[in-house]
Predict the structure of Penicillin-binding protein 2.
Amino acid sequence: MKEGEDVRKNQRKVDQAKVRQRKLTSFRMNFLFFSIFVLFSMLIFRLGYLQIVKGEEYKRELERTEEIAVNTSVPRGRIFDRSGHLLVDNEPRNAITYTKTTSTTSEEMLKTAKKLAKLIEKPTTRITLGDKKDFWILLHPEEALEKVTKKELLALQNDESLTKKEVQQRITKLTRDRITDEELDSFTESELEVLAIYREMMSGYAYTPQIVKSEDVTDSEFATVSEQLSSLPGVNTTTDWERVKMSDSAILGTTTSPLEGIPKSDLDYFLARGYSRNDRVGKSYIEQYYEDLLKGQKTVVKNIKDRTGKVVETKTVREGEPGKDLMLTLDTELQSHLEKIVEDNLLKAKRMDGSQFLDRAFLVMMDPNTGEVLSMVGKRIVKDKDTGKLTVQDYTFGAFSTSYEVGSTVKLATMLTGYKYNAIRLGETKIDEPIFVGKQRKASLFNQNSRVAINDVEALGRSSNVYMFKIAMSIANYNYVKGGNLKIDFDAFTKMRDGYASFGLGTKTGIDLPGEVSGSSPEPNRKEPGKLLDLAIGQYDTYTPLQLAQYVSAVANGGYRIAPHVLKAVYEPSPDGKEFGALLEQKDPLVLNRIDNTEEEIERVKKGMYYTYYQPKGTAYNLFKGEEFDAAGKTGTAQAGYYEGDDRSLWGTQTVSVTHVGFAPYENPEIAYSVIVPHVSTYNNPPHPNNDIAQAAVKEYFALKKKRAEAEIFSTETPTIQPPVDEKAGAKKEN
């Protein structure tokens, strides 16, 4: 009986345990299903959030990262002169390129390089020692590993002061250093050719076409590679462009080559603007200043990748576009004639006694009403290193990057500044006489001993130093006492320099070219008040030839300082090579300021300049006598010029520089011009190639204008592309 009850009790316990187990299992299953439900609900919610809320944003981000600007070597914009003559062109040439992706391996590139080496000839001259070492490691991986012992490897890996990257760098350096000369010399000619191709492939960046060969690609090579592109992944045949200059003028500038790429000093600047490291960029003058217009627009493509990152399809988002065409203000035909004039006169003066320091001459001619630079000439004599003979080189950029004392040509500004500060009145007569400041004697060149009464017009035409001295002393609140010490208000330096600056003297002109200087304005020493008198006659501060041209232009046009410029217009690329494309921009005159003088005062100064050319006592009398045009000008001689040329041992030697400024015609000026011939002589009575250059240049301008009018050249409104000008002959080249 007892045994039966025990059995029943045990059975109930077993049944109860099973019930509890089923309940526990049911609870766990329910909890599991609930957890799965919650997780799936969260996942669905997250997917819905990503797709609905963030979907467009992620889609845009994906599209943004896939769109890549590809360097397809679009032609740079061409450069023309004001009449449509071609100055800088692009010459197409065959090219073979390679583009790697982010997933491309070294082994894949090497395989392609070996195939390509069988199809083209690649020079090996650019291979470096480092290239050979890296290539040896790539070809001999097992031998390279043995260059570093296990003990050395273990020591480096256990060095806690080194990061993993630094450890690898140490291993690589040890490996490279231990490659022997014998091993490096073991490369065959065919292997070196593979290396030459491989190094070009490696130097590129992902998705950026890298030029493997663009020089001397034969038609046979181009065709053979084109036929086998399917077996050469990443390789392509295309057209590259070589920049070709039709003019010797340095201000056209230069560009880098694809091998040079972006200069290191400007790398960050250009990369931030979407350039690739191997892009061509302008590196000087017009090519540099107008880079944004000339560069063109790269092709933009969208690369479609698979899961491994391999590009399976490429879609063009935006086609590449050539750069814009630039029309300059320069007149190439006029320029060629003026260059010959400057060169001939420079060489002629160089043959005279006392000319050992003479090595350069400048001429600038511009439209005084618009600021358009018609011609900018700089010539420099240099000794040929090989032959030892003197040759003449282009030094155009010196017209705005070097400065000199300009002598009496500054007297126009001195006179107008005197009017401004009431130091003189219109038509006022002063006595030109030798003056004595302490023990120092100062006089005008035309009057060394007597007393001559002259007015303001005569003072300019005859180039009176004393008249200018008295203006400066009046501005400085000093009443002249013969033999007395010069006690001046030193604020006069600031007043006079501010007056000069309003014309453009001693300040940058605003030319659209890089590298312009403002000249020098030494801080006046209070122990040398006489320097104020030197300033008044152009023998203290220094100015550039371009500043002189802007300065005389302001006088010619009635008092407006206009920024000189070399860009005339911007066009779309020519559609047919015969006519210009659509006009995009016409360069308008930029007035920087109006000088603080009345029209009557400016006219008075212009009469003084007219006196220079047409009155018997003028310093350049008869220069344009009998011509069909009339002109006005001012000559200058600076006796305070100190040599600072290539021979530093001779620095400080006193020389004489000669200058000339003017404009023509007198009533309605079309041109303003400046000439500077620095260090023309060590003699106080120097030759005057400045006047000869000015005379010949102005006559040439009007002769060319007459010839064109008679031939009705450039009479059409639609500009047409003209052949280049033969600068030596001054005639057009035939294409």
